Amino acid sequence: MGTSTFSLEFDLNIAEIRNLNKMYFKDLYKKRIMFFLAIILLVIVFLDWDNNDDFFQWIIRNLFSVIFFLFFHYLIVNAICKVTFRLVKKLLKFEGFVRRYKFSFTNSVIGVHSPLGGFTHRWCQIEKAILTKDLFLLYIRDRNGYIISISTKDNCDHKIAELIAFIDCNVTHVERI
């Protein structure tokens, strides 16, 4: 098999999408919201600067804004994430929304695509590959230790055999359990 032309794309079933949302996208989405709120805080702090004010008064006034932000930003982030993922859970009933979740495998990267965003991993980040009766698991060597799980059931119509052969030959040994 030539590795320069290797390319596979898998649509995901509902169980795989729920696992992805739980394992990947909640953390990713929380980081994005925290980043957005931090930018808002910086804008509020620096737009508050008035050249006529005393510098010491400006620091004290903004210190209260920062303390207020630090006390309540986790509550705000968790509330936004909870509402967003409840909405996503309701949207999973629609086939058009489900089809937007995909795994793509090329000779150089693993891509995970969704309406909430996407990310890629390089093949050298694969720590372990395990094939079970129902699932094919790829353990990602990362700070969060992600696991990509792909259903191997016949009704999923994945080209799983081709993916397993590629990983076994070019990436790492596939443990069969």
UniProtKB/TrEMBL annotation:
- Keywords assigned: Membrane, Transmembrane, Transmembrane helix
- Where, by residue number, does the polypeptide cross the bilayer? 33-49, 55-81
Q: What is this protein called?
A: YcxB-like protein domain-containing protein
